[in-house]
Amino acid sequence: MLPLCHQVAFSLKRWMLGTHQGAISHEHLDYYLDEFTFRFNRRTSSHCGKLFYRLVQQAVAVAPVPYKDMVKHARARRPANHNP
Q1: Which residue ranges make up each domain of the chain?
Q2: Residue 38 · residue 11 · CB < 8 Å
Q3: Cα separation values, 18 from 41, 76, 80, 81, Å
Q4: CA 56, CA 29: separation in Å to the nearest integer?
């Protein structure tokens, strides 16, 4: 069990450094982790060709979420003395 934890932690670190070059925003950390989880869970899928099709299906079925709504909870947690 523990070797799997190390594999996940190593993969997450490499993914963040490779994909985002270490520029990870704490405000969006939940979304980065969601994306990593999605990719990690599908790393051995034998149906990779269906991935785009499934993403399009889901995008059409789910209502769009404006950016301001996605970061609303993150902005509420900022300290009062924070200067953007």
Answers
A1: 2-76
A2: no
A3: 18, 30, 33, 33
A4: 24
DSSP 50-81: HHHHHHHHHHHHS----HHHHSHHHHHTS-TT
pLDDT for residue 84: 53
The predicted model scores a pTM of: 0.49
Percent above pLDDT 90 for the chain: 0
> Amino acid identity of 52?
F
Asked if 48 contacts 54 with a C-beta cutoff of 8 angstroms, the reply is no
Contacts of range 5-12, beta carbons closer than 8 Å, 24 or more positions apart: 8/40, 11/36, 11/40, 12/36, 12/40
Q: Is the dihedral of CA 82, 25, 52, 58 positive or negative?
A: negative
